[in-house]
Amino acid sequence: MTSSSASSETPRGAAPTTPALANGKASAAPPKVTGENTVELNKMTPPEDKLPLHEDIMQLARLGEISAIQTLFETGKCDSKYKDQEDITPLHWAAINNHYALCKYLVESGADINAKGGESVATPAMWAAQRCHLYIVNLLLQYGADPLLTDGQGYNMLHLATFDGNVFLLLILLHQNIPIDGPDPSGHTCLMWAAYKGYPACVDLFLQWGASVNGADENGFTALHWALVKGNPVCIQKLIEHGSDRFVETNDGKNPATVAQEMNSRGAWHRALKESGFNPDGTVKQLPLPYASFVRSRVFLNKSFFLFPFFQMFIIFSVLSGMPIFAAVPMTVFLAYSLQWAAQQVLQWAPSDMQHLQRTVSNLELSWGSVRLITTSAISSRCFCGYIILGWCTLAYDRVDK
């Protein structure tokens, strides 16, 4: 998978973001000097006549001039199925330049919505997908664009959208029943491309959609290998948490640790392993306590973290009620931080999808509640403390429920 194969560039034969107007001139043959040192002019090719702008449907499509194109159709000078020498249609140029109204008009006028053209041999929807024009892609799909077609390089629309990492466009395409593990000609799936590009949101989306985490390309590289090539720690961690094989080898006998060393991404690799509950060599961490399997069970952890706020609240009230205020407040802050740190250490032994509860919104609510409780309990009334306790119970239940 090389950078040249990544199709995040503009489709071949497509215009840049700002429509570039062609000058319509042919390259003339240079004058030829004969043996008598005279210039031979009779073989020079005259330049082609340039069409006026109001008659050049391709230029008008680039600029989104609907009224001028309607005039051409009404006078019979062009029709919606017009193609140039590269089989590019006006719909291609309208799609890549994000002219929604013109695309709709051309399609309703009978334009071939699945016409392939340009050096990339791609459809208008593919051109729009490479530029992340969500509304154009959605419009063309609604009018019957085939999402399963491939371009000249063998990429389908989902591959092309993955190259730029637009999650919203990917969601639109995933609802079109495109096979999520459909490979390109080299065997690379969309998950591999997202991991290689370093798009954590796309990696997470594909995994949640059921992409094969251990699928391999023709060289034996899995998505985890490609994530290590890029070195994005979040992508690596998500793949590990979803069960990616940490010891699988490529056709050349390279496991993920070897790839990480070669690509200078060992730091990201070890960090992802640590936060996923594994040792630096990829083996599972063993909890040095009796009944370790029970302590690491989901049932035990769910109940423990449901009761944890009540235990923390009991400690806080005990300190505040039994010590002078000038000593109770800093001691309470220290104990609250210590208990939070202890909870984070316990979570390192939890199942992979539970190891980041301390980073969730519910935990932030609990932490803020702790701060408010510490700073106001000394001067608050019993009624207010009752509301605080009720709030703690609600937040704790909400955390377990999520």
UniProtKB/TrEMBL annotation:
Its EC number is 2.3.1.225. The chain crosses the membrane at residues 305-329. It comes from the Eukaryota. The keyword Nuclease does not apply. Pfam families: Ank_2, Ank_4. SUPFAM superfamilies: Ankyrin repeat. Residues 1-10 have a biased composition (Polar residues). Keywords: ANK repeat, Membrane, Repeat, Transmembrane, Transmembrane helix. One of its GO terms (molecular function) is protein-cysteine S-palmitoyltransferase activity. InterPro entries: Ankyrin_rpt, Ankyrin_rpt-contain_sf. ANK repeats lie at residues 86-118, 186-218, 219-251. Residues 1-50 are annotated as: Disordered. This is protein S-acyltransferase. It comes from Imshaugia aleurites.
